[in-house]
């Protein structure tokens, strides 16, 4: 089920679900390993912490769909947990590799502010999560939450950093900011169109 009725749209949904447990475990594990990486000065451990975060993020979403346990509360929990992981890991990465500081600032502002507002916008419509935003607007969904967009928006920056291509990483981060700004403008238009502003 992708749409929720108006009553379900204002309820939080069950919190004790397998995907939410996975989200909690991957968040604690990724942040813990990230802090250990920072304290020990280990770039390899930082890479492991990113791996835990990404694998866990894929696994919680897959499990939610597979078990029929998608909830709006779970979607918000996932969004908040993604920000916690990204903030800690990005700050740790800058501490370990100071050359990425400018990229990190652009990326963090985009992800923590612009992308958070966009990701939470699904709550204004009767859909379960941003993954179903195509039911509201296909272009905004394709640029932000389609599988290709999810990989490009984060992995593009981190991948370029991993290969020490810092100008490329900055270019990708700036391009992501442009996409997010366009998407926010589009979502504001959708809110006005649907009388939700």
From TrEMBL:
Its EC number is 2.7.8.5. It comes from Micromonospora ureilytica. This is CDP-diacylglycerol--glycerol-3-phosphate 3-phosphatidyltransferase. The chain crosses the membrane at residues 28-55, 103-128, 140-163, 169-191. Belongs to the CDP-alcohol phosphatidyltransferase class-I family. It comes from the Bacteria. GO terms for molecular function: CDP-diacylglycerol-glycerol-3-phosphate 3-phosphatidyltransferase activity. Keywords: Membrane, Transferase, Transmembrane, Transmembrane helix.
């Amino acid at each position: 089920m992708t749409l929720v009725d108006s009553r379900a749209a204002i309820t939080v949904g069950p919190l004790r679900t397998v995907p939410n447990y996975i989200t909690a475990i991957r968040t604690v594990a990724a942040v813990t390993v990230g802090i250990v990486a920072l304290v020990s000065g280990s770039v390899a451990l930082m890479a492991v912490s990113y791996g835990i975060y990404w694998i866990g993020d894929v696994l919680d979403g897959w499990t939610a769909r597979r078990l029929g346990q998608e909830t709006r509360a779970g979607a918000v929990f996932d969004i908040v947990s993604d920000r916690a992981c990204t903030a800690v890991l990005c700050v740790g990465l800058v501490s370990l590799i100071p050359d990425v500081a400018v990229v990190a600032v652009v990326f963090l502002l985009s992800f923590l502010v612009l992308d958070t507002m966009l990701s939470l916008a699904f709550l204004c419509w009767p859909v379960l999560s941003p993954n179903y935003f195509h039911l509201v607007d296909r272009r905004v969904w394709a640029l932000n939450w389609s599988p290709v967009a999810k990989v490009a928006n984060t992995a593009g920056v981190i991948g370029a950093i991993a290969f020490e291509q810092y100008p490329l990483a900055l270019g990708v981060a700036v391009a992501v900011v442009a996409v997010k700004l366009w998407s926010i403008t589009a979502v504001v238009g959708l809110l006005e169109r649907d009388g939700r502003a």
